[in-house]
Design brief:
The protein has 134 residues and is α+β, with helices and mostly antiparallel strands. The protein has 3 helices and 7 strands.
Length: 134
């Protein structure tokens, strides 16, 4: 093997062995959709916190699909809506009900989702392990 191939191979081997830095690791959503009519509500989100019963998602205003949601400072019309989302890094789809929302100003919104009863308990616990500890 040539020296260039060895260097390239070693680069990829070490990249695979690196530990995940939980302080900077992010879990993101591919989309947030309504279960009622399968309407896409948001095209991207970031998971802030998770527990065994629910999850907190941060969504920037520009990531909402509906112009109505992007233009509004209050998204309380989403409370009680059944939703599902796909966590990109885990390739996991979870469903739940929006429990509350909070406006963060220029940073966007925080949405609290309570898991539905059919959400796998094992994956809920794994999700808590992937998030940074404070």
């Amino acid at each position: 093997m040539s020296a260039a191939k060895n260097t390239l191979r070693d680069k990829y081997r070490t990249a695979l062995r690196k530990e995940i830095n939980k302080e900077v690791a992010k879990l993101t959503l591919d989309s947030l959709c309504s279960m009622e009519n399968l309407e896409k509500l948001a095209k991207y989100g970031e998971i802030i916190e998770a527990s065994a019963t629910g999850i907190l998602i941060k969504i920037d205003r520009q990531d909402f699909v509906s112009k109505d949601l992007r233009a509004n400072l209050n998204i309380d019309q989403l409370i009680g809506k059944e939703v599902f989302f796909n966590i990109h890094e885990m390739d996991l789809e979870i469903s739940g009900k929006i429990a509350r929302t909070k406006f963060l100003g220029k940073k966007g919104f925080i949405i609290a989702v309570d898991y539905s009863s059919d959400s796998p308990e094992y994956w809920r616990e794994c999700l808590m392990d992937f998030l940074p500890t404070k």
